[in-house]
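During the no-cost extension, the postdoctoral fellow (Dr. R.K.) reprocessed legacy sequence entries with the updated structure-token encoder. One reprocessed record is reproduced below for audit purposes.
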Amino acid sequence: MRKRVKWKFLPEKLEESTGKLRNPGIGWYEIHTFPAGEDPHILADGSCSQDALVLLVIQLEAGSDMLPRTEMEKFDRILAAFAGQRDILLRFVYDTGGRGLECEPGQFDTVCGHLMQLTPLLKKYALSLYVYQGMIVGSWGEMHSSKFVTASHLKEMQRRLAEAADGKFFLAVRKPSQWRQIFPEPGGGQGTLTGLFNDGIMGSVTDLGTYGTEQAACAGWEKPWCPEEEIAFQNKLCRTVPNGGEVVYGQDGGQPPLEQIVKRLADMHISYLNRCHDMRMLSYWRTLKWSGSDVWNGVNGYDYIGAHLGYRFVVRRVEMVKKRGEENALLRAEIENTGFSPIYEKAELFAVYEDEQGGCQEERVCCDVTQWQSGEMVCITHPVLPRAGKYYLSLRRKKDGRSILFANRCPDNSGSEGQTSGESRVLVGTIVVK
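Re-encoded structure tokens follow.
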């Protein structure tokens, strides 16, 4: 008979970190704009290379039915320069100066032809793309000031872009009402991978016309709703698809306090924001201080908001439970998502064992990380064989194996205070064999 090993689990002291975490698909971004007809000055590293995201705005020549071969080759060079370095937010546009009606083609068939031409390029760089914003048309590609934003036009453009995406990256439309024009009531968006982008966040009561003034019951499914109902709509929709954009200094007088700003961004599940757009608003955030009993007390609003864009996972508690009469034990961990949104791409959680000689073994923990909703605590369990050594949790994005850092401050966690890259494992405890 095999002698039963006596062991003791010593849990690690798990503290929350306020460090900046360069995690995929979330955070601040800057814009690189590439006008039509110009040879691009490609700055793949960018002045904000610490960002995990970048928005590429690429202008199309609308004067012909077919995009010139030289322009298509240029688009390929631009995407190749950024691919694999940062997750790409992409927007092909006809207009970069606020003259959407003047710059877009006269016929919708031309728009569809251009989308067809772009499809192979989108497929080629699908793994580097995170969100394709808009549908080419409108001023700045923001789907307003255009003759091609009727429900029928939107449905056709979304269909073509969804075929190009093939489930590998997200799409986004400018307004919730445009989303509802594409997808029928009720719940027609399940599995569509189409989210939102909002370039007028807090710019006015209606986010600069993003919302309407009528109650949903009066307006109907396809029309804009009042802000409260539109935010509630986003709160539900953006549990499965991203939402991001730009904040704007309010035109309605006094600015809201930090707690109100945070609640709005959390209710919308905002996961990415432009770090360079309206500096008045961002500077105002820097004057605010978070007040509370947590580790964030005294942190300025800009840093607090930046750290909570998207998901932010904190391991709160870990224990090793002995299973009576069995050789295995049960590793049980409580993980809180303190960010504004869930993680939208598939990721894999691993339990990692390191023996006393430094050798490592890892096992995948069965769980759906995309279900770790913002503001919620989850409990995961995994059977392990108790052996002398250290135990870790590690998280990686499935499509490319990229590490996802936990927001824990502990000795073996490379996501500790002030660090932005490295292995994502968190030391959760040590087993001592008696």
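The CA atoms of residues 16 and 294 lie 9 Å apart. The chain is about 25% helix and 25% strand. The remaining legacy entries will be reprocessed before the final report is submitted.
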